[in-house]
Structure formats: structure tokens, C-alpha cells
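Entry 14. Structure prediction run on the chain below.
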Amino acid sequence: MAKKVAKQTNPKRVAYEKKQEKEGEKVVMWIIGVLIVLGIIYAAWSSFMVA
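Output returned:
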């Protein structure tokens, strides 16, 4: 039980978790952005092929 409390209150661990969370959010936003751009490129390509 004492180890769980110590892990939660360790300032280095808390800072590391916050850093990882921010980096994770960046990665997710990049993935979403790339998917949107690829969708736009595909829509343009498919409309070019039909016309």
C-alpha cells in the first residue's frame, strides 16, 4: 500500500506522466491531421478519375 502512495506522490513520476500525456496528444493530432489530408487527396484524385 505504501508503494502505491509513494508512486503517486513522486514529483518526477508526475512530471513524466504529464509529459507523456502531452506527447501522446500531439501524436494523436498528427495522425488525425494526416488522415484528413489523405482523405482530401483521395477525394480530389477520385473526382479527377471520374471526370
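The first helix runs from residue 2 to 9.
Filed with the rest of this week's runs.
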